[in-house]
Amino acid sequence: MSRLVILDNEAVQALRTPTHPKHNQVLSHVQVVVSRKKRAIPVSLAVPTAVRAEAGWDRTSAAWAFPNHLRIADIPLDAVHANTAAVIRNDTGVSIADAHIGAAVEGSPNIDITVITSDPYGIRKVAGDCTITVVTI
Amino acid sequence: MRTEEAIERISQLLGSDMTETANTSMRIPAALRDAAALAAQELGVASSATALTTMALRSALEAVLMQATLDDHYARHPGTRPDLADLAVAAAELDGHPLAAEPERIRQAAGELAARHPSPEPEDVLLWAEARAFPSL
């Protein structure tokens, strides 16, 4: 059973910036993921690319070296995800980044999905009928 | 090579093209090789023993890189290192554990467990907190 942990925009910002008021909280989540990976427990971190763009996360920039080295995988806004995100956005009026989170949840093969977010209500909305764990920061 | 340079280089290598392969003279225990071959052939865990070995090595290296990145971050920003209670709360939140709604109970359990055991895991704290809820027989 594999768990996927998805970061939203504020979680990314908090992780990147040591002075961010929620930095230590997000760092704790990342440390738990890493500790589990060290014990060969299947768990991974991911960020939808629309969230990454919204957060200004440029993987080629040295300013983002810390999150880059944490092996947080991209979930691309490919054709399938874009279609799903468009439907979610039309139905709910959320941002493109949040719609992409919803599409990532819907299209994920992972049984267990956790989203770390500052907007739990919005994430519940975009997740629709999918069962997810929402961590509020 | 300094630690941060090693982290950067390992990160680059793990993110690079993995289709290019090389023969290696790396020696591994024969029993481990045979077990890997059987796991691939009979249990279908990978397409081949080589694929299984590569997958395991990649996973291990990713965990090593992530922990090294976090350790480097903690060294630069000492106030960001999460303690046992922080990690136990984070573990409960990530898993959607019922105790996630009671962080103070988790923190109390972390304090109690840390006094009794040299190096408990966050999951041990949650188990301890749950056990403390049962009345004594």
Describe this structure in words.
The complex is a heterodimer of chains A (137) and B (137). In chain A, 50% of the residues lie in helices and 18% in strands. Chain A is of the alpha/beta class and 137 residues long. In chain A, strand 4, helix 7 and strand 5 form a beta-alpha-beta unit. With 137 residues, chain B is mainly α. Chain B has six helices and no strands. In chain B, helix 1 packs antiparallel against helix 3, helix 2 packs across helix 3 and helix 4 crosses helix 5. Chain B is extended. The mean pLDDT of chain B is 93. The chains are: A alpha/beta (137), B mainly alpha (137).
Beta-strand content bin of chain A: 15-25%
* Number of self-contained structural domains of chain A: 1
Q: Count of DSSP helices of chain A?
A: 7
- Bin the helical content of chain B: 55-70%
Average pLDDT number of chain A:
96
**How far do the termini of chain B sit from each other?**
59 Å
Unreliable segments of 5+ consecutive residues of chain A? none
Number of helices of chain B: 6
User: How far is the N terminus from the C terminus of chain A?
Assistant: 25 Å
* CATH C-level label of chain A: Alpha Beta
Numbering strands along the chain, what is their spatial order in the largest sheet of chain A?
Answer: 3-2-1-4-5
**CATH architectural designation of chain A:** 3-Layer(aba) Sandwich
Q: Would you kindly provide a brief summary of this structure?
A:
Chain A is of the alpha/beta class and 137 residues long. Helix content of chain A is 50%, strand content 18%.
Key structural traits:
heterodimer; A: 137 residues; alpha/beta; Rossmann fold; 5-stranded parallel β-sheet; 7 helices; 50% helix; 18% strand; globular; B: 137 residues; mainly alpha; 6 helices; extended
Question: Layout of helices and strands, plus pairs?
Answer:
The complex is a heterodimer of chains A (137) and B (137).
Chain A: E1 3-7, H1 9-16, H2 23-38, E2 43-48, H3 49-55, H4 65-68, E3 73-75, H5 79-92, H6 96-107, E4 112-117, H7 120-127, E5 133-136
Parallel strand pairs in A: 1-2, 1-4, 2-3, 4-5
Helix pairs in contact in A: 1-2, 1-3, 3-6, 5-6, 6-7
Chain B: H1 3-14, H2 30-42, H3 49-76, H4 84-95, H5 103-116, H6 122-132
